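Extended Data, panel c. Modelled sequence:
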Amino acid sequence: MVIVVEQTTIDQDFARLIGPYRRELYAHCYRMLGSAHDAEDLVQETCLRAWKGIDRFEGRSSLRTWLHRIATTVCLTALDKRGRRPLPTGLGGPTDNPESELADGSEVPWLEPMPDRLGVGVDDPGTVVADRESVRLALVAALQYLPAKQRAVLILREVLRFSAAEVAQILDTSVPAVNSLLQRARAQLAKELPQEDRVPAPRADQRELLERYVTAFESYDIGALTELFTAEAAFEMPPSATWVRGPENIVRLIHAQCPAQAPGDLALVPTAANGQPAFAMYLRGEDGVYRAFGIHVLAMTGEGIGRCSLFFDTTLFPLFGLDPVLHR
């Protein structure tokens, strides 16, 4: 019994020690892997390795640096066995026939949205803003095009603000090597990140537009969406590889492909993903029950909604703390 109590005390002390870093570690693993599910698993592995090795932590670096060294190593190992995770907009051009059969992308390991509740800071307002910008969906999608070590260096240096010397220690390399990798990563990211997604729109004055977005879907007034999207807005729906550009094509796609047919068939519940406005969508069945259907993640610009990524993956709902059935 004494041994159990002592072990429990050790576990509790360890949990308190690393607790302040868990959210940051989760966001780091997500940026590296592009998967909310994988990030959760890798944070658990990071914590397990840290717990097993805490006696060997000699304090020559900060605890934060040590934890990120473990997390980065875990991520790089995982990336050896995985390909990059794209979005449909990163694989080809938009369709000009939204009514045609959707392209099957079920075999593609798509980029997943990240719940803000797991990866965006909640205390310091300045930290929250920085966190939101560093996990934007378009940015994380662009990061997936970087070689794994370049990706790690860019995130560690420019998002987590480690020094070049600290990054060299984390990656077990030299400072000149870190600087070289960073330079190449910056150049590649500039090519991959869409121009319209490089500067996020201010979050102020978005409430009315988002309320109109919800109303349009829930009342099945899909035509009203044409006023909310920008002229060059993109609409994508992984796991389908099909996507469209422009409000008229978005409306055509929804009319042709959405199983909802009447007002009240859809219900949207606000949430937050990747530091962006998001909604969980529920579809009403023939029995009148609303069941999990998909998660919208919206990219806002000064002119309106610039992109909607609608993820038809109901396994994401538990990560967002959402019930599979909506009771209304």
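The mean pLDDT is 89. This feature is highlighted in the accompanying rendering.
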